[in-house]
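Now for our target.
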Amino acid sequence: MWASVMGNNPSNFKGIKRPVETISWDDCQEYIKKLNALLGGAATAPAGFKFSLPTEAQWEYACRAGTTTTNYFGDSPWLSEQQANRVSGETKDVGRYPANAWGLRDMHGNVWEWCADWYGDYPGGAVTDPTGPSDGSRRVIRGTGIDGNVQVCRAALRASLPFHPSDMGVRLALVRAD
């Protein structure tokens, strides 16, 4: 999908079913802008909705799929190669690993995924569907990449980087168009 919208595939590991990787947060914004322009009024997107990057709260909510455990497989921090691609050094076809209760796949491993939020401290007290700070120097990433450690494959892991590593990818969110 990335190649058909952007006209290229910058990935180190190419394949029709492989996730796009080696992309920056700005690359994702350009992709989303073009995708939304292409889909404007198309039957493929529900009326009144558009694509965006998920906030980190949306990402974690989707990853957990109603669970409160370390990851959607349970509380074991040790994910096997049958559960997530996290140390192979190469991306694998998307959809290869078990889905969570909401049908979402590859939430742990394969590529780190950009979030819409700036990285910063969590707000104090109880909040519903929070967003990050209004500015900052680094964006939030979630999910764990191909050179990850089994102990970082957990729903609550949040990270940020001042640059984009080779295993950075994108997961789209469908949000109300305001």
